[in-house]
Please model this.
Amino acid sequence: MATPHDTVHDSAAEVLTTRRLVAAGSPLPLTEEVACPPPGRGELRIRARWSLVSPGTELHYLDRSARTGERFPLGYCSVGTVETVGTDVPGFAAGDLVIAMGWGEAVHAGVVTVPYRLCRRVPQGVDAADAVVANLGATAVHAVDRAGLKPEDEVAVVGAGMVGQLVAQTVAARGNRVTLLDLRPDRLHAAAELGLAVAEGPSFLARTEAAAGRGGRCVLLCGTGDADDTVAAAARWTSRAPGRPRLVGVGRFSARIDFSVELGNLDIRYAARCGAGYRDASYARGLSEVTPPAGEYTVTENLQRALDLIVSGRIRPAAMRLPRVPFDEAPDAYAELRTRPAHPTTLLAHAGTPCDAPKEQPAP
Model:
């Protein structure tokens, strides 16, 4: 149940005031009260249960705000109950449990208004705290699509943070051989508990033996910071296979690449966001359509595909052991994420949602 500090309802204007997290000139988030308007055409108003911190993106904007003084609402991954349905919104009703995403829309707040094509209904019996992971899972699904994998390809995923763990689980769900790489033994131990093959990054990429079979090799780069050496090593590792070598950037990193014939016929791609139609206000509200490139999908489809992977047990949020903390403790949670702890991210509980420890359910 919401407390008086969470929301205040103005029944005449149908406006809710709610607390949300913002980047406002400090390395840690601040809380402010804002109005949450009634849903317009193609929108849902949702009372949040959980929101998920996306560390790479959110710490980036906190740092930017601390440098420039710019203000940014934080968060884009939420789950909760539909409170009000706007006009021209097919397939949703008040009381539905839904995941919702969108920068500046599905923010860390007790109540959010989100375009319906950035929402998906959560199947009965699925824990809401597990379902919210599907929002960031859509980024992983899209990244794997961008890789253009064939069944015989071998894959390495660099970076065992939140996105890296989701990407590796998504690749494994396709049936490809995949190894998750990192420098952190604690992150690798946690990833191994997901049933993933793991290895220390530099030593794995330095292996000189040729690949078995006729497939290619692909590296998905999910790290942050300077990555000159990592990208060079990844390019060399992919070249030791008969199929086409590929590098796919997913994280926020910088790297110098010396383009020359020594690279061979290397494909370099970047996977931005989570599918066609994201950041397109018209598409998100059902006012227009988008056509994804061949082999890729809309953000709506990718949200559903990620949710389906959770329902089937091929992405295992509970086994990732993400800490669950009350919204009021968010600044402490962000401070801890800056230390790069063993856990890859944190879930924030809204409106009195109990912060029970996660319990993994058996796959159906």
